[in-house]
Write a structure and sequence with these properties.
The chain is mainly alpha-helical. The chain is about 85% helix and about 0% strand.
């Protein structure tokens, strides 16, 4: 088989494929424009897909918010460094961890943001550090850090009036789940304001 014959066959096969794709596109467009049942079927498929995507996103969002609330509770129970040297070491370690985790991709963003929040929590000038974070931290991670701050503020407000929030400060897994549920309701209510 000569090179010219192989080229001719390849061009012929390519032309047939291109013609069939173009023909299918024309048929699909004609059918979409003229057949009401076909349009309904397409709309139903689009609605199913969008419902599935929406359900996945809302489940992911609820899980992330619960993760953030749990992280804030865990961080608030951690002891804070007492000496300036310990504070500096704690700050540098958490910033380094946050930077490493933020390079790992979206799955690690929550953990990266909690590390940045730990560093922010002990920093003497948090407003200045937030401005630095805004310029240096990835935008999705920075948004999570801001969300952590908002959740921490809601928790601080709710802990100042535990009876209203439905938080009794008891021990145990059921009490922790009730506290998380009450905090999620409070955070959702604060987010609507």
């Amino acid at each position: 088989m000569s090179p010219n014959r192989a080229t001719t066959i390849a061009i012929g096969v390519g032309a047939v494929l291109l013609t069939s794709v173009a023909g299918y596109a024309v048929w699909f467009d004609y059918r979409r424009q003229t057949d009401k049942d076909f349009r309904r079927k397409i709309r139903k498929q689009n609605k199913k897909v969008s419902k599935v995507v929406e359900a996945e996103n809302s489940a992911k969002g609820a899980r992330t918010q619960q993760d953030l609330i749990s992280a804030i509770i865990e961080i608030s129970q951690e002891p804070t460094p007492t000496t300036p040297e310990e504070s500096e070491k704690y700050f540098m370690e958490n910033v380094a961890i946050g930077e490493k985790l933020s390079t790992l991709g979206p799955d690690a963003y929550v953990h990266a943001a909690t590390s940045f929040y730990r560093a922010l929590r002990i920093y003497p000038a948090p407003a200045e550090l937030m401005q630095i974070y805004e310029k240096t931290v990835l935008p999705p991670v920075f948004a999570i850090v801001k969300e952590l701050i908002g959740i921490a503020n809601v928790i601080a407000q709710q802990s100042s009036r535990p009876a209203e929030a439905g938080i009794d400060g008891g021990e145990g897994e059921e009490d922790e789940e009730a506290m998380i549920a009450a905090l999620q309701a409070a955070v959702a209510g604060a987010g609507r304001e």
